[in-house]
Amino acid sequence: MFPAGFVWGVGTSAPQIEGGVDLDGRGPSIWDAFAETGAVRAGDTPAIATDHRRRFAEDVGLLGALGVDAYRFSIAWPRVQPTGVDGVSHSGLDFYRALVDELLAHDIEPVATLYHWDLPVALEQTGGWPSRDTALRFGEHAAIMAEALGDRVRRWGTVNEPWCASMLGYAAGVHAPGRREPSAAVAAAHHLLLGHGLAVDALRAAVPDAEVSITLNPYPVVAAGPTDDDRDAARRVDGLANRLWYDAVLEGHYPDDVLDDLRAVSDLAHVRDGDLAQIARPLDALGINYYRRYHVRHRPGASATGPAAQWPGSPDVELVTPEAPLTDGGWAIEPGGLTEALVAVTREHRPPPLYVHEAGAAFEDPVDAGSGRVEDTRRVTWLADHLSAAAAAIEQGVDLRGFFVWSLLDNFEWAEGYAHQFGLVHVDRTTLQRTPKASARWYAEVVARNALVEPG
To answer: Annotated catalytic, 358?
Structure first.
């Protein structure tokens, strides 16, 4: 059994499911622009995605069938503010009001994330997240959404996975906006956190009883070699993937060794007096996303250029694949890493209550032509093993309050387009018909029992 009151949920994000670029006067996001360059696998785009903007009532019905307590979704910034500044789309706001009302009608608590990577193109054109102005505009966006939904939504998240938004988008260039500028990535990381801090204040001003969180994606780091250089590679990756974010948000400073590494590519002039105090505003909860560990070793020049350039200031880091089963997305399956991540942040930082905001796996899930069913037994096993890992963390004293499976639907999986499927519900790419998988039926039983159900 999990603790009484444990929150069971699922998650999605606006750019991955909404579609509806022709509705609400929605402006283009950096993911629309990135896809138009042909940078996404198979030329896929998020223009339709799963058409959730039009089919949200059907999708909330799927949530009701799962019996979940909560649904974590994100607000599409360009649907509400097409250019990220000035004008507000009342149609866009009405969509989110209608979505939240539909959730509440099904006794499902809305958990709204303000930023899940869909920056309005107009803001990117004026500098994007490397510009301090974008953080200020994000604070305004938070105030608009808090005012619009604060009477309906109590649980809020500010920024989802700022490491991905900054390092994959501005250093490696494999995510939108596709820039490969290490110094810009360092500034983007800081301004994403500054925007988070400004959003915390905006939410508290409009919704005094709000539960406010940020969602980070820690990676337990393993040195995949015996040398001092290998151990230093692990230190560098741990610094950029984990400690940079935890120390800033929970302690109000950046780690000295990480700053020393980053000075190789940045003068850090974007960090101003008072910024860290703003970033470290007290939180009511902390979201943790977990998918895998990082196994790393030293190799000269390994991360200097190309897709591996996600470690600015550390050009000699190589990620290696361990001897372990893999998802169809090529990620090692290591459920014990979730226990490690939850225990580590608890022991090292004394955080507010924790939630697993995302945990899921990409497996190919064909629909059986005869039965019409999707028997995704590998996903069921993956989820069961990771729920066991979450339970183990609770037994070790972690204050874990909930678990959100990623994802409700097969969706637009960023640079991989529609090639990687994470959903509990299969979405036919031609008809967009929804078909709950075996994992959906299994998870509904877990939710109903408030306990792990063995795969079978």
So the answer is: yes
Cβ-contact 314, 236 below 8 angstroms: yes
> Taking every pair of C-alpha atoms in the chain, what is the biggest distance, in angstroms?
65
The full DSSP string for 73-137 is EE--HHHHSTTSSS---HHHHHHHHHHHHHHHHTT-EEEEEEESS--BHHHHHTT-TTSHHHHHH
pLDDT tens by residue, 53-78 = 999 999 999 999 999 999 999 999 99
Predicted model pTM: 0.98
181 catalytic per annotation: no
Strand, coil or helix: what is 18? coil
Helix, coil or strand: residue 214: strand
Going from the C-alpha of 164 to that of each of 134, 172, 317, 326, 365, the distances in angstroms are: 17, 10, 17, 21, 26
Q: What is the rounded distance in angstroms from the CA atom of residue 123 to the CA atom of residue 134?
A: 7
| Active-site residue (options: 18, 124, 358, 413) | 358
Catalytic residue among 102, 124, 161, 211: 161
Query: pLDDT tens digits for 129-142?
Result: 999 999 999 999 99
Three-state SS at 406: strand
